[in-house]
Design goal:
Blueprint lengths: L12 H37 L5 H53 L6 H13 L3 H22 L2 E5 L3 H10 L3 E6 L10 H15 L3 E8 L9 H9 L3 E6 L5 H4 L5 E5 L3 E7 L5 E7 L2 H17 L7 H6 L8
Parallel strand pairs: 2-3, 3-4
Antiparallel strand pairs: 1-7, 2-5, 5-6, 6-7
Length: about 325
C-alpha cells in the first residue's frame, strides 16, 4: 500500500533534512580539498623560492597558508549566510506586516464567513486526498477572483448564476425590481424557480417591495402567463404583463433584456446568445449602469397597460414623450 501523497507545495521533513545534510557535507568536502590543494601549492612554491630551507619550515608555511585559505572560505560562507539571513528576516517582517493588516481587515468581518473560510480552508489542505486539495484550491482561486471583481463593482459568471440570484434576493432590504422576457420563460418551470420565489416571499414578509414586469412578444402570449402571474401575486409580488406591440415606439426602441435591480443600487443582468439561451450573468454596482436600469424599469413599469401606473415613479421618472 503506497503512502499518501503530501499536500502540494509541502516537502517531507525527512527528505528536507537529508538534502541539507548532503549539501553541508559537499560544502565541507569542497573547502577541505581547496585547503589541501592550496597547501600543496604553497609547499611547492616555498621549495622553489627557498630550496635551502629545511622541510619543517616548508610544511609550517604550507599549513599556515592553507589554514588562512580555509578561514577565508568560512568567512565568505558566513557572510553569504548572514546576507541570506538578513533577507529572510526582512521578508518575515514584510510578511508579518501583511498578516497584521490582513488580520485587522478580517477582524472587521468577524460576523461574516471570512474567518470560517480561512479556518476550514486550512483544514482541507491538510487532510483528505490530493483531489480534494486541488478542488479546494480551485474554489478558493475562483472566489478570490470574484472578490477582486466585486471590489471593482462589476463581475461576470458563465451561464445563469442561480446562487447569485438567491443570495441577492435574501440580502435585499428595500426593493427588488425585475424585467422578465422570453429568455427566462423556461426558468419558471425549473427547480431553482421554486427556491427563488420562496426567497422573494421571505423578502416581501420582511418589508421588501418586489415588482416584476413580464414582457412578451405578442398580446396572445399574455394569457399564457395567467397562472404564473397569479402565483407570484399570491406571495405578495406586484406583477404586470405587457406585449411589445402595446408599448409606445420610443419604449420599444430601448434595450429589452432580463435584469433585476436590488435596493436600487445593484443590477443583476442575464445575457442570452443567438439561440436565446442564457450565456452570461453580470452583477454591476456602478452608478451609471444601475441608474440606466432603474430608469428603464420605471419607464416600462409606468407605461404598462396591465395595471395602474405608479404615481411616485411617474413623478420622479416621467416617461419619455413620443413626440416633440
Amino acid at each position: 500500500m503506497s503512502s499518501p501523497t503530501p499536500p502540494r507545495g509541502a516537502a517531507g521533513p525527512t527528505g528536507r533534512g537529508e538534502r541539507q545534510r548532503d549539501d553541508g557535507a559537499r560544502s565541507l568536502l569542497q573547502k577541505f580539498l581547496i585547503t589541501v590543494v592550496t597547501g600543496g601549492v604553497a609547499y611547492v612554491l616555498t621549495n622553489v623560492i627557498s630550496p635551502s630551507q629545511d622541510d619543517l619550515w616548508r610544511v609550517v608555511v604550507s599549513v599556515l597558508f592553507g589554514g588562512a585559505i580555509l578561514i577565508v572560505q568560512f568567512m565568505i560562507t558566513f557572510a553569504q549566510q548572514l546576507g541570506e539571513l538578513r533577507t529572510v528576516v526582512e521578508q518575515r517582517f514584510v510578511d508579518i506586516g501583511r498578516a497584521t493588516k490582513l488580520f485587522n481587515e478580517v477582524e472587521q468581518l468577524r460576523d461574516d464567513g471570512v474567518p470560517r473560510l480561512a479556518e476550514h480552508a486550512t483544514k482541507v489542505v491538510a487532510e483528505g486526498p490530493t483531489i480534494l486539495h486541488e478542488f479546494a484550491h480551485q474554489e478558493i482561486d475562483r472566489l478570490a477572483g470574484y472578490m477582486y471583481n466585486f471590489a471593482n463593482l462589476h463581475a461576470k459568471s458563465p451561464g445563469e448564476n442561480h446562487d447569485w440570484l438567491l443570495t441577492l434576493t435574501r440580502c435585499a432590504r428595500i426593493s427588488v425590481d425585475a424585467i422578465s422576457t422570453s429568455v427566462d420563460r423556461d426558468f419558471w418551470s425549473s427547480e431553482p424557480a421554486g427556491r427563488y420565489l420562496e426567497a422573494q416571499s421571505e423578502a416581501v414578509q420582511r418589508g421588501v417591495r418586489v415588482r416584476r414586469l413580464h414582457v412578451v412578444r405578442n398580446p396572445e402570449e399574455i394569457a399564457l402567463l395567467d397562472q404564473l402571474r397569479e402565483e407570484q401575486r399570491g406571495i405578495g409580488i406586484e406583477v404586470r404583463v405587457v406585449a411589445l406591440p402595446q408599448l409606445p415606439m420610443y419604449a420599444q426602441r430601448g434595450k429589452m433584456i432580463d435584469f433585476i435591480i436590488f435596493d436600487g443600487a445593484l443590477s443583476y443582468e442575464i445575457t442570452a446568445d443567438q439561440m436565446n439561451v442564457p450565456s452570461w450573468t453580470t452583477v454591476d454596482a456602478t452608478h451609471k449602469e444601475v441608474r440606466e436600469r432603474v430608469k428603464r424599469f420605471a419607464e416600462l413599469w409606468n407605461i404598462s397597460p396591465n395595471g395602474l401606473p405608479d404615481p411616485l415613479r411617474a413623478a420622479t421618472n416621467p416617461p419619455e414623450p413620443s413626440g416633440p
